[in-house]
Amino acid sequence: MSGAELYTGPIIDAHHHVWEPRKHNYPWLSGALLVPHRYGDYTPVKRDYLPADYRRDAEGVNIAATVYVEAEWDPADPLGETRYVSGLAREHGLPNAIVAQAWLHRDDAGEVLAGQAAFGLVRSVRHKPEGAASPAEVAAGRRTLMSDERWRSGYALLERHGLHFDLQTPWWNLAEAAELARDFPRTTLIVNHAGVPGDRSPETLAGWRAGMEALAARPNVVVKISGLCLPGRAWSVDDNAEVVATILRLFGPQRVMFGSNFPVDGLCASFGEIFDGFRRIASSWSPAEQRAMFWETGLRIYRPELSDANRGMPTA
């Protein structure tokens, strides 16, 4: 890999949110409730965050398109979230693609998937598969919904609707995710938040690395490098360089995307600080490799509908 200067080309932000928790029901955001979160106290993000706020945070970063990821809106109304975000996209020109909510083990999974696929911007769905809450539980034999036959029946419908699956699960469940990717080779599995690598201790990173190696062996798996904050710490290259470099080595730039996870990652750093950190870590890669990571992979996987201002952006 040849040396290169910091990337300055177009960027697809493959993971962000917008919301109005006082207007709509997000059980974890609306009201005074605080649920356990890997970043700790997330009170500062329990506020409206709209496209104008996103653009203000991203000012100075060459964002050409964005991908909205479901934000745990009221699970009784998954289509309502997609309808709301689609309306924001029409009005504001972003987001340019949507990862929608779908509970794959529910009786209405088929109906919900068909409904989500009917929206023009929906490319994928997400459902955090509850299950093993620690490495010890995995060692004791506990599995997640990824191994539940009813949930898998819902997952099997994704191919019919041309939908990907965005997976967010702790690192200790990644080997199980690799089995899921193996069993459904025609469905693209998008690993969120770098596989949630945890506290960066040598023992944790060794377990995370093993899971990511298993996933990398499956050609239908891609990874979003996002959500890398550590509770109580500012985002730093030192904390994240090994994680990012490992992902790039295992998957290659054609299977890696970058995401801001804003506004949530704003708890630990500014938008510019996070993306500048990513650029610095990736700067040893060639210009073509950097372009693949920051632009081409997201373009291929999420097929964003570019706004009028960005229609002149290159497509390859």
From TrEMBL:
<dbReference type="InterPro" id="IPR032466">
    <property type="entry name" value="Metal_Hydrolase"/>
</dbReference>
<dbReference type="InterPro" id="IPR006680">
    <property type="entry name" value="Amidohydro-rel"/>
</dbReference>
<protein>
    <submittedName>
        <fullName>Amidohydrolase family protein</fullName>
    </submittedName>
</protein>
<dbReference type="Pfam" id="PF04909">
    <property type="entry name" value="Amidohydro_2"/>
</dbReference>
<comment type="similarity">
    <text>Belongs to the metallo-dependent hydrolases superfamily.</text>
</comment>
<dbReference type="InterPro" id="IPR052350">
    <property type="entry name" value="Metallo-dep_Lactonases"/>
</dbReference>
<feature type="domain" description="Amidohydrolase-related">
    <location>
        <begin position="12"/>
        <end position="303"/>
    </location>
</feature>
